[in-house]
Amino acid sequence: MILYTLAPVTIALSAVFTILAAISLVLHIRRQKFRLASDLQVLPGPRGLPVLGSSHIIGRYDNPWDGFSALRKKYGDVYGVTLGSRRCVVVSSLAAMREVLVSKSKDFANRPNFLRFHAIFRGDRNFSVALCDWSPKQKTRRELAFPYMHPRSASHGVERMNSFITKELQDLISSLLTVQNQVIEPRPFILVCTANIFYQYLCNKRFEPKDPTFQKVVEIYDVVFRELFQGFAIDFMPWLKVFNKKRLQELRDKADEVTKLTETIFNEHEETLDENNPRDLVDIFLKHIKEDRKAGGKLAREDAEVTVDDLCGGHSVLGNLWLWGLYLVAGHPEVKERIQAEVFQATHNHRHPCLQDKLSLSYTEATALEVLRVVSSPIIPHVATKDTSVQGFYVPENTMVMFNTFDLNMDSDYWKEPRRFSPERFLTKEGRVLKPSYFFPFGTGKRTCLGDGLVKSTLLLGLGTIIQMFDVYLPEGADAPDLNAIPGLVVPRNEIKLIFRHRQSPVTINAKETSVCLTL
Asked: What are phi and psi of 218, to 5 degrees?
């Protein structure tokens, strides 16, 4: 009887102790947070409005980065700003960016949880290698992809990369010859070229330019690219989802079209897979998944498929940069002439340039770097994985960090006449390429861009070959490039139009010299 009487009391006491322990743990965590916060400064920044935060301030500017720059002048290199319901930190100095991206990369390894990101990547942004939060799975995918995407010089990987780039450039030249001397929008021509380069290098798959499925996928990737590099209210005010259901579904439907193509490619690879001789990145993933499954691994085929989706999408970023490059070169004839002279010195116009010529194409490479500086494509925002700090300022967990590379790339403390297009700034007195430590257009640290090697190689040969073959002009009456308006814009407000005039017999193909180029 005594036991029966004590049982409820014991249970009650246990419940009380459990609750007290939980309260104690919560208080301990809060004390730790308070201790961290009390040792740090409070982020300066504008006071936001209910619901909107400080979105109304940024909304006053045509280019949002002009708004962030204006706030920097008032609040400093590191400041806090609330956009809608999202707490953000904007970092503008080199020291702050390096702290976030390198020395405290683990503290800032996640990505924003935007609804659009989920829609674009099969309903879960964590499938994306670029937009996922950091995880063991993400670490595995990067470890598999990084060596393949960054082949060592004089390796078979570089030879394949060179072969795909140079062959697709031949097709691009043929296409542009059909519309020479006309005012055209070059983007569709360039995107077909870059898409085939990426698909061949990643998947060993080439498409006929007129293939309707291929054309549709290229178009979809261009739409997704524009989505990713433009901010939308729904990103910062998720409650707007109720008004954006149709748009989100459209993005999901477009992503499904890409999924179908990728699944077909993976199916074809599975049927012909030789684990001892992987042909491309798809084979590398399939081999790992097969071996990993035996060891109880968690990497699934869908993870690999979306990684390849994601990397193939880099062709749209590359195409956009290449288009900006042609536009900027067309607006600066002296740059065009120097590239043509340099390519002639490297090839004697007996062939087109190739990756083996890289050391001889210093000015062309410097031009590509200057294009990257001027366009100032923003680094994808990071998100704090825990309570931490930046430059002595307290940053709570889940705070989004935005990188103001716009200001860094236009800072007169680092660059002489930053609003002038000058490839020479990336050359030493001896004419060698020098990329300064304060310039990192593809990010840095553990989440640096996986596709930068393929992008830089294609941009180098793309500019060199097209300028070798054509004089590129702006249409009559078109405005010259305005370096007060371009930086940070990424996607041109109005589609770029150019004229390609074939240079009279600039290249006499020499089979012997061409074969030397392809044997790296």
From this structure: -60, -40
Q: 132 is written with which tokens?
A: 């996922």
Q: Report the residue count for the chain.
A: 520
Quick: pLDDT tens for 401-453. Answer: 999 999 999 999 999 999 999 999 999 999 999 999 999 999 999 999 999 99
CA distances from 272 to 265, 286, 301 (A): 11, 11, 16
DSSP letter string, 478-515? PPPP-TTTSTT--S-SS---EEEEE-SS-----HHHHH
Residues 292 and 285: their CA atoms lie apart, in Å, by: 10
DSSP bridge partners of 470: 502
CB atoms within 10 A of CB 265: 20
Residue 19 inside a domain? The answer is yes
pTM for the model stands at 0.90
- Count of domains forming the chain: 1
The residue range of the domain holding 35 is: 1-39
Check if the beta carbon of residue 83 is closer than 8 Å to that of residue 108.
no
In the three-class reduction of DSSP (H, G, I as helix; E, B as strand; rest coil), residue 298 is classed as coil
* 382 confidence band (pLDDT: 50, 70, 90): very high
Buried b (16+ CB within 10 A) or exposed e, 472-499: bbbeeebeebebeebbbbbeeeeebebb
